[in-house]
Amino acid sequence: MEILKSRIKPGRTLLYIFSYSFVIIWLIPMLWMVITAIKPDGSPVTILTELIKPPFTMDNYQYVSENASIWRWTWNSVYIAVVTTALTLLLTSMAAYVLSTIPFKGNKLVFGIIIAGLMVPTEATIIPLFLMMVDSGLVNSYSSIIFPSVAAPLGVLILKQFYDSIPKELVEAAEMDGANKLRIWWSIFLPLSRSSMAALGIFTFISSWNNFLWPFLAISDEKMMTLPIGIPLFQSGYAAELTIPMAANMLASLPALIVFILFQKHIIKGIAMTGIK
Fold first, then answer.
1. Which end of the chain is more exposed for a tag (fewer CB within 10 A), N or C?
2. How far apart are the first and last CA of the chain?
3. Phi, psi dihedral angles at 237 (to 5 degrees)
4. Which residue ranges of the chain lie beneath pLDDT 70?
5. Domain span at residue 241?
6. Which keywords belong to this entry (predicted)?
7. Among 61, 63, 85, 32, which residue's Cα sits nearest to residue 252?
């Protein structure tokens, strides 16, 4: 009994209490959304006793599927997020590899310019980007959303820090075996940075999935809208009703939740390895 008491430290107990308290606080609105989404249309959902009282129905999901372009918006969001993530990982890893392993005049200057991009707020680039897309004829297209998102200075910073820690002996051994720069990047640097790239990929995916401001300006065709734009448009017709909008929100949040649940270990490991605070 004394051994058990010695293992249970008061500080750790308080930490667990605070941690689980925050988890419960975070889950409450999620549970409210889940239950509200299956309540009949017009049911009172702001009173707890009425919220948990039957009946429950799945008709709201059927209504949303039939009256909103939810699946089209979902496809648009998935396609844009996947392509943006793939291109971001490709470009940032290649840029970080060049800056980390290939010495050239102005290397530090180029890296400094890239990192300076972190200090430029997104809102400051909206007007120039929009004018560029109009002049290029890319408005109301996937490209207008994808191309501005693949420039990721943070990704270059994260991967360069990791690549700098890879022993130079590995590169030298590969060069002695006749491997060229592209082969070394593909066979050594990419496999070793899987955790960091997985974390970066998930952050990029979720950021692209939740992106609202730029798609809102670049897309006006309803068929090309993503979920963050389409869902508010659909909800605007249900200002006083909550059950149907919550059903739409549930359908919209499922893909992002699934991605996070499946890859949460990579997120934690990637954060630990890359030193993100």
1. C
2. 39
3. -90, 0
4. 1-10, 239-240, 266-277
5. 71-276
6. Cell membrane, Membrane, Sugar transport, Transmembrane, Transmembrane helix, Transport
7. 61
